[in-house]
Design brief:
Blueprint (H helix, E strand, L loop, with lengths): L2 H22 L8 H6 L2 H4 L3 H9 L3 H6 L6 H13 L4 H26 L3 H13 L4 H4 L5 H18 L5 H13 L10 H10 L5 H25 L10 H20 L18 H24 L3 H13 L23 H39 L3 H10 L6 H12 L3 H14 L5 H16 L3 H14 L4 H13 L3 H20 L1
Helix pairs in contact: 1-7, 1-8, 1-17, 7-8, 7-10, 8-17, 10-11, 10-12, 11-13, 12-16, 14-15, 15-16, 16-17, 18-19, 19-20, 20-21, 21-22, 21-23, 22-23, 23-24
């Protein structure tokens, strides 16, 4: 083994740490981090009963407290970390980065076992490790499930790529831990077949059989919990066909995100389509065309990398394709946390095929992605930076400006919070939760600064959309009282009490 080969993993680990350094000084992002980690009563409870509930309590209340999922490996890891070191955000960020480095090195080892070309494996490992799509998983504390799942999927591939008899238990165990860290890894067993394709070897059917049985069992548990917490939603557009049409452009944007970092965003717009259009068709044609090209090159020229990269893209995304299990979140960068290996493999193949020019091209791409990771990591160190970026990159999503308004309000910059909440209401349609909360928060800030007529207008407009919101009604009553309009306030209170009595009588 050359000196370069021996130094490569250490150098990769150091570079990964360096590009993520800007993210380590950050605190909790104000989306999910506070309730899921900082203020979580289960994680704060040091008794064995809390640990037991993480694994055995499938009640709606406990599952909602733990993120509306059954991820006992993630929750146990955080519970143990709380006991050992506390849940300070800087330390949590450091441990997330440490876990990510472990995952990267395991993936590198698996690639070198699967690919005959040192250049192809090394370029693919660096491309995967430094791609900015991972920032959302590594630098957002709520993404702890992603980095844990990366570790265990990488371990499964690393063990499977070896020749030890321990594969019979080490691979299924690693995948089981991945499934209990992040639910969408239930399809990761398919990546073992991809490894066999790349390594040109016969499948290890005993290992694969046990792993598939574990995946089916994990899927059953996740579906049960999803039913308990109502995680799935009706298909976008009201039908499976409309959901398919809606996802067409999403597939296309996933492909763009893999090669063009500026397209990354903490929140994405996903307009609902009720029928197929050119963009919907183009998304599916691009993915299907990739797969067909891969099969043709494999069968006619015995070139396997295109088919393998296609499988790496599609297999991990299958659980969030929204067709079988429509979810609340239609698209997220973090869903690509495994699929990014697809572009890494292609870049590695170019490096192997074209020698020095290929390696140089790979180096340029990796350097560009590393710079994007460095820049994006700094965004995730601060809620205002992260949600300012997401607000600029979206036109319809209400969550980005709402969280931005929350971040400004927390530090007392009310003028910018007001502007952000107004942007939420401009984008808001129907009965979305962000619109409801923004209405109350905007009215509160306007009233605080003496604009009582403005607060009243906001609340009256909000009550047309949310007539049953008691907080909005009570806020309007308080605004009317502060304007000396006691009679109107009492009439509104009387109407509310009459409605409550009528509801009780029914």
């Amino acid at each position: 083994m050359s000196r370069l080969a021996r130094a490569a993993p250490w150098l990769l680990a150091v570079v990964v740490v360096l590009v993520y350094l800007p993210s380590l000084a950050g605190g909790y992002l104000n989306w999910d981090d506070p309730w899921l980690i900082r203020d979580n009563p289960v994680l704060a409870n040091g008794s064995p009963h809390a640990l037991l509930s993480i694994w055995t309590d499938l009640s709606r209340e406990t599952r909602l407290t733990l993120g509306a999922e059954y991820l006992p490996v993630r929750d146990t890891e955080l519970w143990l970390e709380a006991r050992l070191f506390g849940l300070g955000p800087q330390l949590l960020r450091a441990t997330s980065l440490g876990l990510y480095v472990v995952a990267v090195l395991l993936f590198r080892g698996a690639l070198h076992r699967a690919l005959s070309s040192f250049a192809a494996a090394e370029v693919a490992a660096w491309a995967f490790a430094l791609h900015p799509v991972h920032v959302e998983s590594v630098a957002w504390l709520a993404g702890r499930k992603d980095v844990l799942a990366l570790v265990f999927v990488a371990a499964a591939l690393f063990f499977y790529a070896g020749s030890s008899r321990n594969r019979l238990w080490s691979v299924p165990l690693s995948l089981a831990l991945a499934h209990l860290s992040k639910s969408m890894t239930v399809t990761a067993v398919g990546l073992l077949f991809v490894h066999d394709l790349l390594a040109r070897r016969k499948p290890e059917w005993r290992v694969l059989g046990i792993s598939m049985a574990i995946a089916v069992a994990a899927l059953a548990v996740h579906m049960k919990v999803g039913h308990v917490v109502h995680m799935t939603v009706p298909p976008a557009g009201g039908s499976r066909l409309a959901q398919l049409a809606t996802m067409g452009p999403v597939w296309l944007r996933y492909l763009v995100v893999l090669v063009w970092p500026p397209a990354l965003s903490l929140v994405h717009d996903v307009p609902v389509r009720t029928s197929f259009d050119a963009l919907s068709a183009l998304g599916y044609l691009a993915v299907v065309g990739w797969g067909v090209a891969g099969v043709v090159l494999w069968r006619k020229r015995d070139q396997r990398i295109v088919l393998a990269s296609f499988a790496w893209f599609v297999v991990p995304l299958a659980p969030v394709s929204q067709v079988l299990f429509p979810l609340q979140n239609q698209m997220a960068d973090r869903y690509l946390f495994l699929s990014v290996m697809a572009v890494a493999l292609l870049l590695g193949a170019v490096a192997a095929r074209f020698a020095r020019p290929g390696v140089a091209l790979g180096g340029v791409a990796i350097a560009g992605w590393a710079f994007a990771t460095l820049n994006r990591g700094s965004l995730f160190a601060d809620s205002i930076a992260a949600f300012s970026d997401a607000t600029k990159k979206t036109q319809y999503a209400t969550m980005a400006p709402y969280q931005l308004g929350q971040a400004y309000e927390e530090i007392g910059v009310d003028a910018r919070a007001i502007a952000a909440y107004r942007e939420v209401l401009r984008r808001s349609e129907g009965h979305d939760e962000a619109g409801r909360r923004a209405t109350n928060n905007l009215a509160k800030l306007l009233a605080r600064h003496g604009d009582l007529p403005g607060a009243e207008r906001v609340l009256r407009s909000g009550r047309q959309r949310f007539p049953d919101d008691p907080k909005m009604r009570n806020n309007l009553i308080q605004v009317l009282l502060r304007q000396g309009r006691t009679r109107e306030a009492k009439e509104l209170q009387s109407q509310a009490q009459s409605g409550e009595n009528s509801a009780k009588s029914r």
